[in-house]
Amino acid sequence: MTFSTGIPVSKLQQSEREKLLYLEEVLHKRVVGQDPAVRSVAEAIQRSRAGLSDPRRPIASFMFMGPTGVGKTELAKALASYLFNTEEALVRIDMSEYMEKHAVSRLIGAPPAHGDVFNAFLQILEDGRVTDSQGRTVSFTNTVIIMTSNVGSQYILNSDEDTPKDLTYETIKQRVMEAARALERVQARIADRKIKLQVTDSAVQLLGNLVYDPNYGARPVKRVIQQNIENELAKGILRGEFKDEDTILVDTELTAFANGQLPQQKLIFKKLDNDSNTQSTGTEEALSSTV
After folding, report:
1. Average pLDDT, stretch 280-284?
2. In a domain, 221, yes or no
3. Which of 99, 125, 156 is the last residue of a domain?
4. At 71, which CATH number?
5. Which residue segment(s) compose the domain that 190 sits in?
6. Whole-prediction pTM
7. Locate the Clp ATPase C-terminal domain: which residues (predicted)?
8. In whole angstroms, what is the distance from residue 128 CA to residue 252 CA?
9. What pLDDT, on a 0 to 100 scale, did the predictor assign at position 208?
10. CA distance to 90, 169, 259, per residue, from 255 (Å)
11. Does 69 or 43 have the greater pLDDT score?
12. 272 forms bridges with which residues in the sheet?
């Protein structure tokens, strides 16, 4: 299966759409539990097939960390089997064989090359490409990269109590502006399909609130945009709800009072008529007012 971004929805077979929409359930048939990991993998594939992933980087890159036997490698095998119909499509590299810096020559050739294997990973994950000592360039833009480690979860969640939990105003403002720029990048990607994205002030303010958390400071804005905007757009495209040349309005609404829980704001996506007079908002200005 060949992955490429910007594929018109009309070229996606109906059976393939259904497979992508139920990818999470398919992976769960082999991987018990691990809901967040399985969901993240499935959503990354859905974004790629809907044309919303960054075309200059790999489809997705993950780091699965935890004790032995929790399903890290099994999830990688299940994904390879789903995408390429065989587990043999999974390329495995045992990092214990590259503990010495010069051992990277076994991957991409002897000098002149990288002196440290992790520098090679930086180039692959950031630029989606790597060049060997013979000058041959390999593209990783259509790959899923999964790194695994046996580090226990108790080490993952350790935090330094001396680390200040509150960020300064300027730092918070900078992160919120990054969220605005991330929204603009989403709009630019779907513009190739002539799909217009309009975001209301209330939606931008809600995203601004999601970006900042008093306990963790400013969470990675890219992940917030992916989870709340790109994932829903991708699913709507795959379901056939959003098509080329559509105008999509991102707004908010209050959830109903239920089970003793107060109503909360949530994002909603509406397809507007082509003659709609709804105006798109200035995302950076609205996010700035949120700060």
Report:
1. 45
2. yes
3. 156
4. 3.40.50.300
5. 169-290
6. 0.51
7. 167-256
8. 36
9. 76
10. 43, 31, 12
11. 43
12. 247
Residue 113: is its pLDDT beyond 60? no
Evaluate whether residue 62 is within a structural domain. Answer: yes
Residue 218 belongs to what H/E stretch? strand 217-218
Q: What is the pLDDT of residue 97?
A: 64
Between the CA atoms of 266, 271, 277 and 283, what dihedral angle is there, to the nearest 10 degrees?
40
Q: Which amino acid is at 274?
A: N
Same domain, 177 and 73: no
How far is 19 from 24, CA to CA, in rounded Å? 9
147 burial via Cβ count (<10 Å: 0-12, 13-18, 19+): middle
- Tell me, yes or no, whether 205 lies in a domain: yes
Whether residues 91 and 27 share a domain: the answer is yes
What would the pLDDT profile of 188-205 be if each residue is shown by its tens digit? 888 888 888 888 888 887
Give the number of domains in the chain.
Answer: 2
Residues 273 and 173 in one domain: yes
Name which of 95, 91, 132, 99 is nearest 113 in CA terms. Answer: 132
pLDDT digits (tens, 9 = 90+) for 74-93: 888 888 888 777 888 788 87
Same domain for 27 and 136, yes or no, is: yes
- pLDDT tens digits, residue range 148-175? 877 644 444 444 444 444 444 555 555 5
Residues 109 and 13 grouped into a single domain: yes
Is residue 213 within a helix (H) or strand (E), and if so which, with residue range?
strand 212-213
Beta bridge partners of 144: 60
In a domain, 122, yes or no: yes
18 shares a domain with 147 = yes
